[in-house]
Write a structure and sequence with these properties.
With about 160 residues, this protein is mostly helical. It is built from seven helices and no strands.
Length: about 160
């Protein structure tokens, strides 16, 4: 029985160790891409690259991979779906805040924020995803606050750009 536990531990360590380089390699691949598309997509690419690196530096390989994939989509001129807080383990006031924030972001986008304030709209877009992810983890209040503030500050500028 002890032998089986040892083997299981070795396999787990090897599997986790194998994920790190793969994530690092994907990040390098993403960084080497030449983004195309609108100014929004090019800015979104940069934002998601930053979050991919940030999550990798923290050892959160799953979140890093998600952000790297979104960066690669943006580099191709595609808009990745926002993280849906309703699909996450978030409830109460934080969930309500996220839903309200998403509605404001989508309203600004609908009013042309991607064209009128592409960099700030991209910053708000990626920061929203960061806020959702950090809120679900709910273990690092400074990270939640950072993502939320970055979202709110960028969104305020994007909203101002599309005011009638």
């Amino acid at each position: 029985m002890r032998f089986l536990k040892y083997v299981a531990a070795v396999v787990l360590v090897a599997a986790v160790g194998a994920c790190g380089p793969l994530t690092s390699e994907r990040l390098t691949e993403a960084k080497n891409m030449k983004p195309t598309g609108s100014a929004f997509h090019q800015a979104l690419y940069k934002e998601y690259l930053w979050y991919g690196q940030w999550e990798l530096d923290q050892g959160d390989l799953a979140s890093s991979d998600l952000n790297i994939n979104k960066a690669m989509m943006a580099a191709k001129g595609e808009t990745p779906a926002l993280n849906n807080p309703r699909d996450r383990k978030i409830d109460g006031a934080p969930l309500n805040d996220l839903i309200a924030g998403q509605a404001k972001l989508l309203e600004a986008i609908g009013m042309g924020a991607m064209q009128k304030a592409p960099e700030k709209t991209a910053e708000a877009y990626a920061a929203y995803d960061c806020w959702v992810e950090q809120q679900e983890e709910n273990i690092q209040p400074p990270h939640i606050a950072m993502c939320k503030k970055k979202f709110e500050d960028a969104l305020a500028i994007a909203q101002a750009a599309v005011k009638p």
